Amino acid sequence: MFSSLRHLNALRAFESAARNRSIAKAATELHVSHSVVSQHVRNLEEWLGVSLFERHSNRIELSEDGKHLEPQIAYGLQILSDACDNLLRLSQSGTVNISAEPAIASRWLRKKITEFCDQHPKIECNLRSEWRTPSIDEDQVDLIVHFEERLLRSRTESDRLFPIDGFPAMAKSKLDPNFEPEAEGNLVEFPLIHDNGRHIWQHWFTEFTKEGKRWKEGKVHSDLSLAIEAAVDGEGLVLADNIICGKELASEQLVKVDDRTIRCTWYRVAIEENAPSNSAAIVLRDWLVTEAQKEDFAI
């Protein structure tokens, strides 16, 4: 075993070249030169006494011996990587103070943080829900989750999580059994519910209808969470989405009444600029970005 591990760098070079079917791509992936990867592969071939690749003028292909070796090496390297990642995850420690927009805080982020803490038992996460965007260097906040347009004005380093793709929805109890979602004009009779201004409904009506002033009607709530609750209570139409409003749509507390959908905004996650690469905030940020990529948000 120890004799084999002396060739660990050569095994990594072989696995990358085999997976990419390219010495050049392997060199880029491993951040070394083309000649280094080539030398590693040659050293491995000399040690094993076989040719692992069939070399052509501008490409390589796995030999029969290479085809036999490649999946076993890939599996072994993955085991090593997983073992190190698991130990690192269990040993990482620290406290992360999180400020989040109310709707994502209660409807997505809270459960995700619980999962994160289960996986990272030495990292403590404190979540507070608030509409305002705090100053990350003055309000004892390490990580902020909020709408893109609000975070882009702050002095932070931020990444996108997922968008809000909004479509008209309302309480099923308020719908006539004969309601036809596709019928033009059927939405006129229902009040509109706005969150933090009227601009999103304005965008929807401008995009899809000729009702130029309809968006000016209806109640304005201070945040998205309140607007969703108002719609569930039967107060009117809200621009719902499949992620933040997923629970209400699944239980039919809210039902989609029009398929026409607009991208309202994005949620972003932000941390302090130039935060240490091993900080608990960066660990959580990277984990949340990965989790968000699992969401189905294509319009």
UniProtKB/TrEMBL annotation:
Any one Gene Ontology molecular-function term assigned to this protein's record: sequence-specific DNA binding
| Stored SUPFAM superfamilies | Periplasmic binding protein-like II, Winged helix' DNA-binding domain
| Domain spans labelled HTH lysR-type | 8-63
Q: Does the keyword Transcription apply?
A: yes
Pfam families named in the record: HTH_1 (PF00126), LysR_substrate (PF03466)
| InterPro entries documented for this protein | LysR-type_TF_proteobact-type, LysR_HTH_N, LysR_subst-bd, WH-like_DNA-bd_sf, WH_DNA-bd_sf
Show the PROSITE patterns listed in the entry. Answer: HTH_LYSR
An example GO biological process term is: DNA-templated transcription
- Record's keyword terms, sorted: DNA-binding, Transcription, Transcription regulation
Record family assignment: Belongs to the LysR transcriptional regulatory family.
Name the chain's protein: LysR family transcriptional regulator, glycine cleavage system transcriptional activator
Q: Which organism is it from?
A: Cognatishimia maritima
Q: What is the lineage of its organism?
A: Bacteria, Pseudomonadati, Pseudomonadota, Alphaproteobacteria, Rhodobacterales
